[in-house]
Amino acid sequence: MELFNVYSLYDITLEKGQGCFVWDENGDKYLDLYGGHAVISIGHSHPYYIDKINQQLSKIGFYSNSVIIPQQYELAQKLGKLSEYENYQLFLCNSGAEANENAFKLASFHTNKKKIVCFNKSFHGRTSAAVAATDDRTIVAPVNVSDNFFFCELNNEQKLNEIFLTNEIAAVIIEGIQGLGGIHIPSINFLNTIRSLCNKYNALMICDEIQSGYGRSGKFFAHQYAKIKPDLITIAKGMGNGFPIAGVLIHPDIKPKIGMLGTTFGGNHLACSAAIAVLDILKQENLIQHALEMGIFLEQELTLLQNKYSHIKDVRGLGLMIGIEFQSPCQAIRTELLERFKIFTGTSSNKNVLRILPPLTILKPDIIYFIQALQSILSNL
Ligand SMILES: Cc1ncc(COP(=O)(O)O)c(C=O)c1O
């Protein structure tokens, strides 16, 4: 059987990962500044994480949500504490898109309305409502087309006000930091405006922290740079460090009803043990503070490069979620970083923007190696 060919692949086969590094089948070592789409939070093959998963697997790997799964309670308790959302409720599922689908359903059930505000350059996943809220018409199939979604320019308060004035809005969905769109940060004022408009018009605020959450921004959630609390927060990626698990954090005023949401695999024993290990390591190794410090260092170094090389137009981001915008498309730079310097980096929907999303465990020498590689490339352009 052939694979259904939907991915553009590098001709690389990875065999091993350790910390911020991966090795291919020829033994070549790569610095991973991409974390497989911002998924690797605590580093590859962390021994505590492996041990936790192994231990769980040797007892029971899976049972469905028809029995009590104690690991779900432990996960919810630890997540509530570390994220400072102890009074919220947790619904567990399997992927980012699924988390957003469930957030939309909850908002719609709760408000009895169906219109959603989303933003230009957004990405929320590829399933039906998630893709309808995504600003990329090329991945929206006719079956996903819906007139329930209104797109607004990010940080445009006037436009947002107008949408609320003329429509019955159920929810606003915003990424903590826009990822695939090219690293765009909603302003603190804008987040406050969304919060107050949602309060005023009885709509829910959904924050998609699937990429920007779990410490990547230097806070547990990127929206915590503003002092607002969304009603729903969606999480995935860094949550399981590669083990598929996702979730929705749900405001205490939103009441559950048996059968309201559901999933076969969500919150199974093995997935929860992976997610618990991630939280334990984030805490034990103080990785959120570390991500903040490494992010500041990386941005400073990039700004120095920007001052020296006019090829760099902008450097932006928070913590270890950084976008480098070049004056022109950067695919050749990305390829040279990979082939000559053995460094993985990420693309974005803006061809000029390189995304840097390393494991939160990255160290200064790794950052310096990357800066020197980039400098060497830029000095030859
Ligand atoms: C902000 C954001 N939301 C949602 C998703 C979708 O997540 P998944 O691919 O796990 O469905 C992604 C994935 O890149 C994302 O970056």
Report on this model:
With 381 residues, the protein is α/β, with parallel strands linked by helices. It folds into two domains: 125 residues, Aspartate Aminotransferase, domain 1 (Alpha-Beta Complex), CATH 3.90.1150.10; 238 residues, Aspartate Aminotransferase, domain 2 (3-Layer(aba) Sandwich), CATH 3.40.640.10. The chain is 36% helix and 18% strand. Strands 4-10-9-8-7-5-6 form a seven-stranded mixed β-sheet, sandwiched between helices. The protein has a four-stranded mixed β-sheet with strand order 1-2-3-13. Strands 11-12-14 form a three-stranded antiparallel β-sheet, covered by helices on one side. A hairpin with a 2-residue loop joins strand 1 and strand 2. The model has no long low-confidence stretch (mean pLDDT 98). It binds pyridoxal-5'-phosphate. The site of pyridoxal-5'-phosphate (PLP) has 15 residues, from helix 4.
Write the layout of secondary structure elements.
Layout: E1 14-18, E2 21-24, E3 29-32, H1 35-38, H2 47-59, H3 70-83, E4 89-93, H4 96-111, E5 115-119, H5 128-132, E6 149-152, H6 157-166, E7 169-175, H7 188-200, E8 204-208, E9 232-235, E10 246-250, H8 269-284, H9 287-308, E11 312-318, E12 321-326, H10 331-339, E13 343-344, E14 353-356, H11 364-379
The chain binds pyridoxal-5'-phosphate.
Pyridoxal-5'-phosphate is lined by residues 37, 95-97, 100, 123-125, 175, 179-180, 208, 210-211, 236.
